[in-house]
Every structure is written in C-alpha cells, then in structure tokens.
Automatic annotation (TrEMBL):
It comes from Alteraurantiacibacter buctensis. Binds 1 Fe(2+) ion per subunit. It is an enzyme of class 1 (oxidoreductase). This is Dioxygenase. It holds the Pfam family RPE65. Coiled coil: none annotated.
Amino acid sequence: MTAFPQTIHFIGTNTPRRMELSLRNLPVEGQIPADVEGAFFRAVPDNAHAPMFDDDIALNHDGMIARFNFDKGAVDFDIRYVETERYLAEKQARRALFGRYRNPFTDDPSVEGVDRTVANTTPVWHAGRLFMTKEDGRGYEVNPHTLATVGKWDYEGKLRSQTFTAHPRVDAQTGELFFFGYEAGGLCDPNVAYCIADKDGNLVKEQWFEQPYLSTIHDFVITEKYAIFPIFPTLADLDRLKAGGAHWAHHQDKPSYIGIMPRYGDVSEMKWIEGPVGVSCFHEVNAYEDGDLVHIDLCLTNSNAFAFMREAGGVHIDQRELQGALTRWTLDMSKADPQIAERPLGPPGDLCRLADADQGRPYNRAWYLSMNPQAKGPPMLGGPVGANFNALLRIEPGNGRLTMMEVPPGAGISEPAHIPSATPGHGGWLVMVIDVPNSPNPADYSSEVWVVEADAVENGPVARVKTGLPLRSQVHGAWVSRERLDASVHH
Ligand SMILES: [Fe+2]
C-alpha cells in the first residue's frame, strides 16, 4: 500500500510529518530561566514510508531524534531520522520492507536478517554519549551536536545481549548505568541480561537469567542495595508470531511478579515474588529502602493500557474503562518469603519523572501525566495509546499532596523532563511539549515547549517556546545540561 491508514496510530498528534528540519531562534513568550541551559532531546516515532499493513501501530514507526537547544534564552529546534539499518534499507527501496510490530515473519524477504529496531523510544545520556533506544534491539548512538547517527552501540564488542532497554537507570551518586535487555538471545528467548556500565561507560557486568514467563519488561528500578524487575502478564509467543500475529498478548488471568536481587549480586540470588493477577504497568516512578522495607512506586492499571495488546489476548476492556492508580508496592526483605503489600498513592496516570538525584533513594516529589477531571471535551487524539494526557500532576508520595497544571482546552501534554536549579533550595524546572489545537481538525495544532517551575506546576509556564508547527508525538524525552554536552565524546 502507499497511503497511510486513518487509524489512531496515524491521526491527531500521530499524523505522519516526515520532516527533517532545523529552525533557529524560535519565538519565546516569557523568560527562560538561567538554569535552563542545555538540550531537551525527544524520541519521536514517525514512519518515513506508509506501512505494509493497515493495522500498523505507532510503536512500529521509525525513530526520529528531536532537540530543543536552550542557549542563553534563545531556543533552536532540530529533528532528524535515526539512521538505523531498517531506515536505510527502506530509504533505498523507497517503501516499507518491514512488516508488523516486532514480527519478522511478516517482512519482505529482501530484508531477512536485517536489524529491525527503529530506536524510537527513549533518548538516553550516559558517560558523554547519547543513545536512541528501543527495547527490541541495541541502542543507536547519535551525535548530540549534529544529530547524525554514529551507529549501533555494543560497548566496544563486549555486550552479549541483543537488546537494550529503553529504561535504564543511572545512580546519580555513583554515575553507574544499570540496564537490562529481555529476549536477550533473540526473538522469544526467555533470557534477560542484567548489566552495569561504570561512570566512564565501560561495561563491567553482564549476567543472564530466565524470567518466569515471556513477558515484556519495559522498565525496572534500582535502590541503593537492590535491582528490581517488576513483570506483568503481557506475553510473547513464537507460534503466534510465525502465524503472522501479534508479538504481545495480555493474559488477564495470570499473575504479575517482582524479581528482586542485590544490585551488585549474582542473578542466582534473584527472588521471584508473586503479585496481583491481570495487572499491567509500563513505568515505575522510583524505588527505595526504608530499613528492611523496599518501596516500589508504579503506574499500575487493571489491564494493559495498549488496546492492541489487550485485543491479542482476547481482553475486551474499552480504553475509557481502564482503571488504575499511582501505586506503592512494599516488600519486607527481613522475611524469608516477602509478600507484596499494596496501597494507592495517587490518581491514575503515566509518563512519570523524578529528579535525577532522587533515583533509587528516599524522595518526596515526582511528576506524572494524567487526565484532568474538569477538562471539557474529549482528549486530544494521538500518542502511543491513541489519546493524549491533559494534566500534569506533582505528587509528594510521602503525604499524597497533589498539585496540577492545566493546559488550554483540547491540548495534550508530552512527558516532561526535570532540570535542577543552581540556586540552593530551589526545586528546579520542568520542560515539556504541549500541543495546542488550532481548529476542530485533529491534525491542526501548534506544538510549544513550556518551561514550568517544578515545585509550582499549578502556576503554569514561566516561558512558552512556539514552534509554529504541529510536531508528531514523542514517546520519552531527556534533558542534558550544557556542561555535559560540552564534555561529550563527539563534537
Ligand atoms: Fe517507556
């Protein structure tokens, strides 16, 4: 086919834009704080070609790396494709050659064996390098100054895992990168690689373990002592893939689990603890220790938030009927057989962020996106699950105190990034893209970047950067300070 389908994966903020461009000196309303000096990178799925199949989904689209560069109050914008093996093969052919999301049995025979990852999920910064990641393959290194693709990253040939998560965790105190890859040995392999890179970016540890079932492990958490793998019953099946079907199917009747081991320990020390049945989570906020207790805070839902993963498992729950909460799971590690104690922390939502310094440690604030119960009209169409969030929440997990930032009617919010302040006692800033509708046509909107005081989100933006363009939805973003950019490996 040569036309883009008119499904939720291609309309609203998922409308294909397919533009590589550079804009300098975007108009700014308000004042950009002096702390906001560096780059806000975004991972944007935007397929260069119409898909092979009408039931294509946004997660299957080519990764673009976008950057808002904040330079002493001026802001420049750039966006380029990540030149993955897949992108280059299709560019050469001038058409899609790769078939369904994470199903190589649906590809054009000419690309058999070519790496399928689209590097479209999270920009990751570590040890002076920028990577574009997606959990089905290794990360692609990108030059943070030119946005040119450097190539696939395998720790100078040391990494055995074929995959690298889009959600590694950096311990801000040690500078180490903790990461994993599931389906580490290839398609539907039950092995998970658990790895540590030191503060200089050297791979110092890689161990493999088998997970209890073949689940999608999208995120994990660390504490000062532990590495924690919460897993949920959305499962892969090789026979279904060979029949041309979906990679993932949600199983409403199967339990979740937590795998927990000492973070510097051996995978043989992993304890698997059974959790609630049928639940799903893509992102954990944070985890930390309080004596023998380990708290794990997660964006939990009663089923999988992606309609196509529910449908593949025969789960019939409408998107609007999904229920969930920001939830705390607590384990008492002094017990021989620790169990999960569950309590709600806040309203449902996702795309959670915390200050880098709080990673794995006791914390008293986090931010996430949710639906504003007072908003009039339907949410803006688009984004990975087909509807965009319209409220930014700041929560104090210790006492449940909530504040909310609203957006103009019908607007959508993308995941924020946190920027620390140099002023002692100041809580820093958030940057995020807001898509503001211009007309009832869901493809007609203008994308802005809002800069917000992190501890006063209810006050709204202190600065609005106007692109004048409708930008395609991101998945995740990352803030990188000027100091780190200046010290990067590539120039
Ligand atoms: Fe994610």
